[in-house]
Specification:
five-stranded mixed beta sheet; flat; about 250 residues; mainly beta; Immunoglobulin-like; about 10% helix
């Protein structure tokens, strides 16, 4: 049976609308398995979420650097669970698994794109046959080429800080810091029941830094992991040492 022409055109229009519907982008997702984050680095817009899917247990998410910091749980996330977080503030967020120092990742949050708007129609008058006379510029009077001014973009700090000369002496940890920033100190007591990671964050000035550990730790043997972060969020290479804290 042949359809009327009007119905054929209506059907074609419906089909065209179906094909023209834009696809919805899938939210950012990170798999946690094989002692790694996959992918390690993701990017989203402000207001969007990142979901971590734990394909195996024994891990957690600890966002320790960025406009905000948080953890997925106070302990370890079980296999088969998911953790989602919505990022509302643009910036660079760095995270780690507290139980495996080699598991690291980054979330870059870009500013949300502004809504598109059409420019208003131009109301300029039609061109005139006799344009108004203009006085020559100083460059034109002197016969020189017109000068131009270029705006200078602010410099972006992409150089990470450096931690060096990490030493332990007289129950204090000393180190050299290449620029002002924050120190994130993680330490594990050797021989303690379970694998418990403690963390301290301190502000530090450029130069020699000395940290009294007796305020944090009891007597015993420890593994210590130190990283520095500058004002731009750049992270240093980790510095590690072992120590024995006396009573």
């Amino acid at each position: 049976m042949r359809l009327p022409a009007s119905m054929s055109f209506a059907s074609a229009g419906i089909a065209a609308c179906a094909f023209a519907t834009p696809a919805v982008a899938a939210p950012a997702s990170v798999s946690v398995q094989n002692d790694s984050f996959n992918p390690k680095n993701v990017a989203v817009n402000a207001g969007e979420a990142v979901t971590w899917n734990f394909m195996e247990g024994g891990h957690n998410i600890d966002v320790y650097s960025g406009p905000e910091t948080f953890k997925s749980t106070s302990g370890k996330d079980a296999s088969g669970t998911s953790f989602a977080h919505t990022f509302n503030t643009p910036g660079s967020y760095q995270y780690i698994c507290d139980y495996h120092g080699s598991m690291k990742g980054t979330v870059v949050v870009n500013a949300a794109p502004p809504p598109s708007s059409s420019p208003p129609p131009s109301s300029s008058p039609p061109p005139s046959d006799n344009p108004p006379a203009t006085s020559p510029s100083p460059d034109q009077q002197s016969g020189l080429a017109p000068s131009t001014s270029l705006g200078t973009q602010p410099a972006v700090d992409a150089a990470p800080p450096a931690v060096s000369a990490l030493r332990f002496r007289a129950n204090a940890l000393s180190l050299r810091l290449s620029e002002d920033g924050r120190l994130v100190v993680r330490y594990v007591r050797v021989g303690a029941r379970g694998h418990v990671v403690h963390k301290r964050i301190v502000r530090a000035r450029k130069g020699t830094v000395r940290l009294q550990l007796r305020r944090w730790m009891r007597a015993g043997r420890y593994r210590v992991h130190v990283m520095a972060f500058d004002a731009a969020g750049n992270a240093s290479r980790p510095a590690r040492t072992k120590l024995s804290l006396r009573p």
